[in-house]
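re: ur question from yesterday

yeah so i grabbed the chain u mentioned. its 278 aa long if i counted rite. heres the sequnce exactly as i have it in my notes:
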Amino acid sequence: MWEYNEEYKALFVQETSFYNHIVLGCFFPPATGEYFSHFIQTWLRNYIAGVLLYLVSGLLWCFVIYYWKRNLYIPKDCIPTKGAMVMQIYVAMKAMPWYTLLPTCSEYVIENGWTKCFPRISDVGLLAYFAYLLVYLLIVEFGIYWMHRELHDIKPLYKYLHATHHIYNKQNTLSPFAGLAFHPLDGILQAVPHFISLFVVPVHFTTHIALIFVEGLWTANIHDCIHGKVWPVMGAGYHTIHHTTYRHNYGHYTLLMDWMFGTLLEPTLDSDEPKKVY
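ran it thru and got these structure tokens back, copy pasting raw so excuse formatting
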């Protein structure tokens, strides 16, 4: 087992500084670092990267499924209007500065040695790396499931936070852009399990940062209404049911938690009617 020391701190800071340099160097003069603290630079990097990831992936996604391959993946009457997508982008952009505070705080606590994070896979070995990663993902899956479920079950949380996202409750209002169209606090709460996991299980630093940004791609995927039918993945077919029933399919990456806690509702193969799983 590794032990946090100044060498590790230097490795973490060196890596985050490298990422800061790559992103900020494209948008700001080289002297930017002289005016902003390392924390602010990290937040700016995460904010810029988050915005680019959201807009570029969303635009490409929508271009393919709504225009280039129109009617191939989505029926014509299920394609959202441009106005609906613009509104989703507006909601997400208002929240993005707050969303990106979470990975910035993650990096801060990691750099200061307050977590179980490790900088190199060689510190634990490949087998342990994958074992820790599996535990990390299970904790995240469990945490997101219950956070999401409580955002529905606790009425004030739903009314003042989660309802912002659930105005998109039909196929013709859902789009990849709806994936991050949350109240800022709602979006942060649903990502908090990633942060908490750092204190529970050892996880590779770069992998943690990558998974945070994979969240943005995944949440776009489950809002595009294209059901991939890959068991046990929580595909868009399952999440679309969540947006129409409000009481099922709270999970994130997989069906595991919904199956365990009795909230799984499957789309049937031969009709649009969902099927309850007991």
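noticed a couple things. The CA atoms of residues 133 and 203 lie 6 Å apart. also The chain has one domain: 6-225.
anyway ttyl
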